[in-house]
Structures are given as C-alpha cells and as structure tokens.
Amino acid sequence: MVSYSSYTLEKLEEEYGIVNKRAKLFENVESQKVTDWLKKSLLVAEQLPIKSEKARSEMLVVPILIELRNQNDNFFTIYSGEHLNIDDSKGLRGECDFILAKDTASFNINLPIIQIVEAKKHDIDIGIPQCAAQMLGARIFNEQKGISLEQIYGCVTTGDNWQFMKLQEKEIIIDTKKYYLGNIQELLGVFQQIIDYYKKILT
To answer: Which of 20, 44, 163, 203 could form a disulfide with 172 if both were Cys (CB 3.0 to 4.6 A apart)?
Structure first.
C-alpha cells in the first residue's frame, strides 16, 4: 500500500506542484543551555550499543524532545509512531516516527507543526522525501481543521546527525547545513528558533 515512505520529491512535484531547493534555513542560531538531566541521558546512551532505529529514537531523539518540551512550558506535545492519514488514494497516509504538535490537552493529534523522520539505514537522504510528504500531510491536516500555517517544519535524523526542512507555499526548502549531536547546544538552538516562531502565531 502506498504511504509517505513511498513518496519521492519528483512525485510531490508532479502531484502537488511542490518543488524543492537547498538553502540555508536558520540565521543567528543561539546556543541553548543543556540541563544536567539531558547530559546524563546522552551520556548513558553513549555507553550502550545503539544499533537499531528504535534504539536511536529511545535513547537519543526522545530525551532531546523531552528537554525541549520541558524548556518551553509544555508548549508542544510529542506523538511517537502515530498514523497521520490524510488521503489514502494518494498515499498521504502511514505511520510517523515523531509528530510534534501544539499541546491542546487533546488525546488526539491536534495542530501538527514539526515532523521528525528517523533516517533508514543511517542515511539522511533516504528520509528527505518521506519527511517532505509528511510535512505536506501535516499542512493539509491543519487546513482541514480550518488552521492555515505559512510554514511547516520537518527534520530527518540518525540521532547523531540532523537535517531540517521547511514547507512554505509550493516549496520544500532543505537546509544546506546539518546539525550534530556533538554540538547539542546549537541543535537545541535550531529547535528553539522553530518553536519560538510557532509561539508567536499560536499563542
């Protein structure tokens, strides 16, 4: 069955007119303080054999997302492994690794703002079309609820390497810069810049 993971960038352009380009997404990124809790969590992860995508998500990705949620007064909530089914006929359906959504105290997904895809085979490039399709799915999901957001963000990660993307109008912008777990302060700074954008328009 066709799903987000079956999409290519070419298919997004053919079916939705969404083109893609590479460009720098973020300027003046402010490094963020790393709490002792996150430092300890990542230190434990370093000492464990992380071989699978599931292990990377549990030991590396989730602690970073929880840190961001804590630092932003629970502005967003985290959905892991949830389905975002928009249009079965076109393949805008399937399981999403992580969906960050504005926290509305709802049990159901509400107002998705950031899609995070775990890179398959430790290859970020493989995950870019899937993430792009999920970002489109998130935008349509919001529009169906009467919410129009100019920008939807996404990210593909191996746990160690992170590449961000932005959907704006008919264009997917893929960041020319990758961010790394080794500079966690800068990585948190990028996420914070994205979250600050949504705080301005959703609060």
So the answer is: 20
